[in-house]
Amino acid sequence: RKEVEQDPGPFNVPEGATVAFNCTYSNSASQSFFWYRQDCRKEPKLLMSVYSSGNEDGRFTAQLNRASQYISLLIRDSKLSDSATYLCVVKTSYDKVIFGPGTSLSVIP
Amino acid sequence: EPEVTQTPSHQVTQMGQEVILRCVPISNHLYFYWYRQILGQKVEFLVSFYNNEISEKSEIFDDQFSVERPDGSNFTLKIRSTKLEDSAMYFCASRDGGENGVPNQPQHFGDGTRLSIL
Q: Do B42 and A44 touch (CB under 8 A)?
């Protein structure tokens, strides 16, 4: 089983839609979880950290289920500028970080 | 907003040559990282570095790779004898220690060095 897996995508959604991304991780000792976004040929940029109780930042909501080793990201009211690849990132030990393969999102006018 | 800066933005090197990629992390950050991303593939962890030592490294980070922080500001990745398959985007990242050094602070990435091996 791969260390971090994500929905293969791509997701093509109209503006204003709600879209959810899923991520699973294999190492039950993983400590920290993040969602990053990456635009084409650019560096990953932090979108949000993911906390055990779930957290929200504007239109973005992240959830963590440690028992199921599952992380999700919900984007409400999608904008054209949300088009990017969304990367699930897991810290598996003290300082080793694993990126998922990413899920591509295209928001269509 | 402070940034991680990387130089050069693009490096072209002959196979078998040594290459050094440079990074200036955010000034108050204590933890430093290198990643690579082969075109069309996922971001892969190479190495983490703290207190002048490697903390963790991946299987990719073999004897051909080394890192150092020679002067307290630059953080470098050296590839001793480059191979064609080393062609990739290399990202440097840094983070601070967080409260009580808790290792859950997010990393901030530089905009990468594109390494092309001919």
A: no
Measure the CA–CA gap between B4 and B70, rounded to whole angstroms: 17
In the 8-state DSSP scheme, what is residue A44?
Answer: -
Q: What is the pLDDT of residue B73?
A: 84
Contacting residues of A for B41, CB less than 8 Å apart: 101
Measured between alpha carbons, how far is A103 from A38 in angstroms, rounded to an integer? 10
In whole angstroms, give the CA distance from residue B3 to residue B17. Answer: 30
pLDDT, tens digit (0-9, with 9 covering 90-100), for B54-84:
999 999 999 999 999 988 789 999 999 999 9
On chain B, the residues whose CB falls within 8 A of the CB of A99 are 35, 42-45
Q: Which chain A residues are closer than 8 Å to B44 by Cβ?
A: 99
Residues B30-51 have pLDDT tens digits of 899 999 999 999 999 999 999 8
Q: How far apart are the first and last CA of chain A?
A: 37
